[in-house]
Records
---
Amino acid sequence: MTSLNATLRWLAGVIFTSVLCLNAASGQNLKPSGVFLTDSIEVGKPVYFALSVRHSPATEIFFPDTLFNYSPFELISRKSFVSSTDGRGTLDSAVYHLVSFDVSAVQSLRLPVYVFHRKDCTAVFTQRDSVFLAKNNMIQSKDKAVLEAETRVMPLARQFNFSILIGSFALIIGIAGSIYWVFGQDIYKQWQLIKLQRRHLEYLRSFNRLMRNARERKNIKDAEKAIIVWKNYLERLERKPFATYTTREIIDNMPDDELADALKNMDGIIYGGQGKSKNMDVYLEVLKTGATRIYRNRRRFILDSPVV
């Protein structure tokens, strides 16, 4: 029984091998033709390769597609033609649009035709056809290239250094913080004194101008404006609403007999219908001196205060 099985396996192998050999032989009977349509090419210029084969109508064949390696050429496109059948068999053909960037003097190509069998496909190649390279579009260098050392220093683009910027900001903040921690109160006091002095000078310019006009022009309106400037200045100096206070309220908030007499007399001149008084200049000077005295007290208070 074992000998019979071995004999059957041997016969099956012989039959299978015979079928493959017959299929291969049928493929070898094909004689595909492949030729270039021109005898010369130029680098980078198109060239055409015609592939054709005549076979039995019952035989199924395939031509190479884009996956095939056409080296040294590159495939641009392929145009296939309709099969034609006559008494000699079926004719299939295609034209391949190729291009080459190779500079070899002679370049050749052969393409296969694939014969389909039930188990596999057999590749049957054409004869190798060649073309010659035309040098019309090639630039021939007469001088031999010589390498030269490049020793010049190339300028580099300037780049912003953010590390230095951040470090500078940190240094400035640190120095400013240290100065404020040591001298902060003194600096703030000096700033307060500067603002206080600037306001006092502005008050003196306005008050002196109105007082001079009231004296020279004998104009009570200018005297009234001088009183308004004086009240506004005291309001900013003492931080009390002196501009809206009556004379009685101002006297109650500033217990000064000399200022009280000057304010009462000025009220009589401006609102009492007493007319121009020869002592009006004296009363205005008393008001100005009183405001200056309050300014000096305020300045002394800022200097003596531990924290402003």
---
Amino acid sequence: MPGGEYVREREDSSRDRGRPAVPEPLAIAVYDNHTHLEIQDGEEFGYDQALARAAEAGIAGVVQVGGDVESSRWSAALAAQEPGVLAAVAVHPNEAPGYKAAGTLDAALAVIDELAEQPRVRAIGETGLDFFRTEGDEALRAQAESFEAHIDMAKRHGLAMQIHDRDAHDAVVETLLRVGAPVKTVFHCFSGDEDLARLANEHGWYLSFAGTVTFKNAANVQRALDVVDHSRILIETDAPFLTPVPLRGRPNSPYLMPHTVRFMAERLGMHEDALCEIVNENTLRVYGSWKDDA
């Protein structure tokens, strides 16, 4: 789900919104560490087609991410049957207030905690704070309660944690420093600046760059890429959202990640193969091997 404020940039409604062609494949296959295949899944373009096109483009595997009880169960089930998929499970911060108002937040978190025991569930996420789409003290308290519960889960299960941080950088950092961040903490769809990137370097947090890094109004994210330690870089699509330039306004999918990889490699002044090797090492350190069930 969109994690950065850049998604608000208005798209040109005249653009072709059909599915783009598969780009030139990456020579060294990499991993999309955050996607939402359940949102893409349908008669015209199912998860199986998404995964097949991803393989054509040089995508070795994906982390399928849940945002509520239903999608987290779906994610865990897909990971159990598809060798190219690992799962992340959570109650999204924008879903937490609804569960809380209905009196079912504790029950929802208990389901996430149970799903986290499955061997191909490798992350708690996406969780965090969103001050853009959620308003009101009660709703924000529900977000904070849910976020801290997910942090505890990630630490107890020894899993990575994927953070949704939208217009909430200071509060997210304060929470992580106060309660203690999981060893493998990932800022999904990183939308901060170079100061937050330096803080991530200091604490060993990972920054996951989505298609937003290619946007013309994302100079702060690009500057963060310039200063982040290379051992902390991950790449994602957040599909079907945040399609990279030059395909903005068209549906995103893991197979389009080569556009982001190539933009980042050029920005960093390195060959795309070198960046792929760095990202692969980081990805496997965070999530473990897609070939293993434990």
---
Amino acid sequence: MKTLNWLGAAGSAAALMLAAPTAWAQDDDILVGLITKTDTNPFFAKMREGAAAKAEELGVRFQAFAGKYDGDNDTQITAIENLIAAGADGILLLASDTKAIVPTVQKARDAGILVIALDTPLEPIDAADATFATDNFLAGEMIGQWALGTLGETAAQEARIAFLDAHESQPTVDVKRDQGFMQGFGIDIKNPDRRGDEEDPRIVGHEMAGGSEVGGRDGMETLLQKDYDINVVYTINEPTAAGAWEALKGAGKDDGSVLITSVDGGCPGVRNVQDGVIGATSMQFPLLMASLGVEAVVDHARNGTLPAPSEGLDFYNTGVTLVTDRPVEGLDSITSEDALALCWG
């Protein structure tokens, strides 16, 4: 797809900042819909902002919908049905349930609507026409490698690791980040498409935090009751990490003895890196992801072209960058100060 050629497969931070928008004629007959998991998470808010801005720039109509909570499949189904009825040309979807939504997605595709999954691939991934996403396995692997490098090989063999995941339904983005962390840390992940089958004794447990600060706090409290000696924490996203920190602080473990890792790159999370709350996070680029999605829908509506995946992948990679103020030798990263110029939310 010609509108995506300006970004390399790696999606470096410099390329993201310097990329020039494509010029388009106005066409208010084209309707693009965006459906996010919620309208409160800053990651989804930034996507909505990016999609709306790109739609306005290109002169096309735009409608946004969101679930009532993370995991709300029913509201997302209703949103797709509304967009089918409205004659949408394309739907950008962040699915809460990557399997249950597929039959409704197929209805949209049967109606001639281009469906692009954003951030979270459907199951199977080809249930959507295309996927624009962070390489979530790599995002998890980066923070796992950072935790391993920070502890050192010897200390890592005695680590006590807490996992604060998203949902029992195991959406792909949730699993990929979790399993990527394990591989980066040197844990045998068994089946990379499912979590929970690993047998490494260093893992204290997995708690479902729902991607929220409250969930992160509650999940961390539960795991601390199982093992107070936890010294490494993987979190699905930065709100979860903030909640985990509150639980650790309440338990008297805010002395720097616990490494917290995360994924997102939102401004609050980057500031938490700067303040020493989060040791390292993997930064995503949601505004770019949504902007490219709108461009892809418009391009398809005008000339029928479909977006192509990045080389060697089954999705279009919108980039990921490690953010930490405690760099590890051999692992590329940027500082929190540099990340503040790129963050969102």
